């Protein structure tokens, strides 16, 4: 297939790095998969490492160079997927630690509710959420050490009996409704309602406003809301964890050469400043 030939050519062109001891342990703890079996799809720390990889190198060497390398390589996290052709809705979130509050605050979050090929989408949304979230200015290189990244894979979609048929802290929801001929739609990821301390009715009302509806919320409108619930497999990794676990303690910000294989820690063989 197209995807398998891509993987084969990559194996010839690029020598895959040795995994760190931490990554070997993570892989050993993951149950083996075989072709044809149904596998539960989960976000992995390797996906978060890859997000840092592509963002750092895009900011240091230019996004075009990174985009060209991404087209020629298969990221390390693919080895943890049941198949290279796996598709899934995905969101990538960047948070920044603020020294005054000593808390992480949102710095960018963009994703898709439609299934995307994960081998491409993780890197794509890592850059899009960091550089093109219109709510924020683009992330800069000097912010990298203060960042934390989260990868969320949206799974287990189910149609709700009504817009209140879901559980706070477990489900995210997508709603669609129409008022006076105008269509509205929006979604909240599973963690939003819990983090905001909302009840289910409060979350639904807020989501209707997010969708752009500013009118009165009547029982008739609520009854006609189409609602889908889903769950999220989410992993967070801070820059400090990324350096320790993926870079074997070597700061990738100090490498003096452009790595040949974005996502495969090629800077471990590069001289540092």
Overview of the molecule:
The protein is α+β, with helices and mostly antiparallel strands. It has helices at 2-13, 21-29, 45-61, 63-72, 118-131, 190-196, 200-210, 219-223, 239-246; strands at 87-98, 103-117, 147-159, 172-179, 182-188, 226-238. Strand 1 and strand 2 form a beta hairpin. The radius of gyration is 20 Å and the shape is globular.
Which terms summarize this structure?
single chain; 273 residues; alpha+beta; six-stranded antiparallel sheet; 9 helices; 6 strands; 25% strand; globular; disordered N terminus; disordered C terminus
Structural class: alpha+beta
Instruction: Say how many strands there are.
Output: 6
Order of helices and strands: HHHHEEHEEEHHHEH
In DSSP terms (H or I, runs of 4 or more residues), the helix count works out at 9
Portion of residues within helices:
25-40%
Mean pLDDT: 82
Shape: globular
The order of strands across the largest sheet is 2-1-3-6-4-5
What does the radius of gyration come to? 20 Å
């Amino acid at each position: 297939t197209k995807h398998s030939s891509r993987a084969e050519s990559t194996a010839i062109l690029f020598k895959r790095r040795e995994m760190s001891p931490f990554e070997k342990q993570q892989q050993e703890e993951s149950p083996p998969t075989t072709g044809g079996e149904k596998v539960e799809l989960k976000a992995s720390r390797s996906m978060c490492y890859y997000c840092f990889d592509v963002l750092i190198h895009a900011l240091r060497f230019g996004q075009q160079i990174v985009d060209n390398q991404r087209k020629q390589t298969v990221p390390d996290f693919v080895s943890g997927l049941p198949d290279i052709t796996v598709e899934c809705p995905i969101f990538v979130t960047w948070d920044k630690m603020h020294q005054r509050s000593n808390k992480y605050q949102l710095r960018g979050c963009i994703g898709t509710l439609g299934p995307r090929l994960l081998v491409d989408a993780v890197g794509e949304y890592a850059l899009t959420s960091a550089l093109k979230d219109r709510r924020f200015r683009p992330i800069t290189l000097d912010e990298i050490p203060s960042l934390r990244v989260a990868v969320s894979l949206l799974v287990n979609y189910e149609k709700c009996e009504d817009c209140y048929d879901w559980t706070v802290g477990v489900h995210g929801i997508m709603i669609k409704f129409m008022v006076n001929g105008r269509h509205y739609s929006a979604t909240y990821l599973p963690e939003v309602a819990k983090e905001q301390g909302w009840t289910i009715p409060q979350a639904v009302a807020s989501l209707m406003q997010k969708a752009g509806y500013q009118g009165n919320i009547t029982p008739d409108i609520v009854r006609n809301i189409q609602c889908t619930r889903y769950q999220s497999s989410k992993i967070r990794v801070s820059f400090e964890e990324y350096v320790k676990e993926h870079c074997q303690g070597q700061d990738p910000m100090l490498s003096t050469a452009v790595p040949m294989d974005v996502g495969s820690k090629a800077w471990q063989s590069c001289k540092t400043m």
